[in-house]
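chain below, 231 aa
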Amino acid sequence: MRELADDRALLGRTSTAERVSDILRTRIAEGFFPPGTRLPEDGIGGALGVSRNTLREAFRLLTHERLLVHELNRGVFVRVLTVEDVVDIYRTRRLVEGAVVRELGEPPYRLDGLADAVEEGRRAARAGDWKGVSTANIHFHRELVALAGSARTDELMRGVLAELRLAFHAVDDARVLHEPYLLRNQEILDALRAGERVTAEHLLARYLDDSRTRIVDAYAKAVDAEPGAEA
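prediction:
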């Protein structure tokens, strides 16, 4: 909780449930609270310096986003996805991200955020930080959706991508999972820089289909390998 206490400065003077949920969402996405982890009210509330009512409201918001689950008489836990959840996440991504690229209009596009995310991934790869590569990849797709200029779409995808990170934590070999997409992100960026929106959309669709197959297969194996899983 000492590390979490460092986030208290993010709350400012007007600590709200929304800000607390932002902090916890980020921490869950980064693996600070892995799937299945129980979130203790006293520890988290004390670390962030917020009331129990504020924290419970933040928990409620994150439960609505499908990141947390409340178990009667046991408490609040980080959600553990099913394979069907992962498939549905990718269905949503294909619908939303594909539509964003399809509706971009005429170039040039504002691509600085995408370029920064690509470089972030490269730096992480050079350092052998494959969790960092995963984070950069999430940033790339959030920046891609941000091209739509829609706060509602941004909010939707923030939750979807945070939920997807719950599946990543179950996969042992992060390098095998994420390394191929460094180049593919660059290819999408290059197509958009060239004003080739249709090409970018096709690259993105293949990317998401391949990513879904890899992650669903890896996640299914990880779930099957858990103690108590059915043979």
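The chain has eleven helices and two strands. Residues 197-225 form the longest helix (29 residues).
thats it, cya
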